[in-house]
Write a sequence for this structure.
């Protein structure tokens, strides 16, 4: 299936989510949020962490707070503290941290003259792609700094398509989060979901893992 999509002349632009698609930093997010939660005596476990997939840092903190109201200044400090823990862990990333199947896909896309972009809610996007040593594969990078409304709003995907100068109808989005798939569909993109049916089954195409993208 992936070869037929690559060869589809109507798909000129490929837009990739970062976490969970290009690389897997979920364990680092979990460890950083867990450290913050423990410091603040907040409940946090893997089930709660799963609900944070694909959403912004502030929305994640609001889920962890579970209705607890805090001043904006306190929330900002907590988000910055979590991010400092996360960035320290990100230093472990290398070119070997790219998920299976992704590099062969990116190389195929380049050889076919397709254009690629990253669309990630993370404000650490540039830091991550430089540590992964993959920037040369992409013609555009949209991060958490690029748009005001985070996923599930479709803004970041539209921004990425704009960087590629390719109409939405001629782009396909690869996402591993329900929120990301929903946002892309809302904007009129075709979508590839990576993961279980219960999470990304509403995408146009679905693969269980990134490894299947390299076949």
């Amino acid at each position: 299936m992936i070869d037929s999509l690559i060869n589809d002349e109507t798909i000129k632009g490929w837009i990739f989510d970062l976490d969970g698609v290009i690389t897997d930093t979920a364990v680092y997010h979990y460890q950083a949020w867990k450290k913050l939660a423990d410091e603040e005596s907040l409940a946090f476990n893997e089930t709660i962490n799963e609900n944070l997939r694909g959403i912004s840092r502030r929305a994640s903190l609001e889920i962890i707070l579970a209705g607890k109201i805090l001043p904006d200044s306190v929330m900002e400090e907590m988000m910055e503290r979590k991010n400092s823990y996360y960035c320290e862990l990100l230093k472990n990333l290398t070119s070997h941290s790219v998920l299976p199947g992704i590099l062969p896909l990116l190389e195929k896309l380049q050889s076919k003259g397709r254009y690629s972009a990253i669309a990630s809610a993370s404000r650490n996007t540039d830091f991550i792609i430089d540590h992964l040593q993959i920037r040369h594969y992409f013609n555009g990078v949209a991060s958490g700094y690029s748009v005001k409304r985070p996923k599930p709003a479709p803004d970041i995907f539209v921004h990425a398509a704009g960087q590629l100068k390719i109409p939405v109808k001629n782009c396909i989005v690869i996402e591993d989060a329900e929120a990301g798939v929903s946002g892309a569909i809302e904007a009129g993109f075709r979508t590839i979901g990576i993961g279980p049916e219960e999470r990304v089954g509403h995408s146009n195409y679905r693969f269980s893992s990134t490894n299947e993208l390299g076949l």
The chain has ten helices and six strands. The chain has a mean pLDDT of 95. Strands lie at 13-16, 115-119, 140-142, 171-175, 190-194, 205-207.
